[in-house]
Structure prediction request, 235 residues.
Amino acid sequence: MEIEGVRKAAPDGTNLALAEWFVREVNQSAANIENKVAKSIKTIERLISGGWALEDIQEEIMKFAKEYPSMVTRIYHLEEIFVNKQPPDNIMQPDVFYYHNILREVPPPVRMRMDPETGQMIRHSEPFFLEMKRRFTMKELMDYWYTSCQITPHDHMKRQDEGKFKHFLGIYGLDEILFAIDVSKSSRAEMNLSPLRNAFDLERYMDKALEFIREKENTHKQVGINRVIRRKDQA
Prediction:
């Protein structure tokens, strides 16, 4: 997206470069530049922690500048452009506690490593945390479906499946869809049936997926991890 008088941000992909580009090139600030850059960096960091990618942030700024060319030079904070906006292509819902592992972030498994002084193997583990991923896209959902069911899709199939999953997301939660994929795979393997090929057939496995989610929810409640446990909480 090109806008007259506005150059693309520096291609080094840093928060500082994007912040300076916004302040100097887009907002065209002539005063308090250092302060505005510092505040823009904080906004960019917050957006990234919320699931935005740097290129998405820049595209949103460019879109705003194109639609409101006279306003973009009058706003004081970058924050004003992103009020009530969600990251593009993110199909996760804010403030939802998800149970599917692909939507979560947890510590890596316990690792064994050699003590350089004693030469003995010691166990190394990180403090427990349980956080939700910041972003999960339609492409990632479709890739999970294709990988689970051993499908090599062509372009026409991808377009059809995207429509099917958009339909499902209007009815079911993301957890339910992902667990339905898992349940269909395991159930059909037990019956020596080939994996599903038509995404609409996942609907037959939604009830079992819900049962699985309830069981996992109960287990989480019993051990006290039915909530987000942030890294800093365990520091």
About this structure: The longest strand covers residues 111-114.
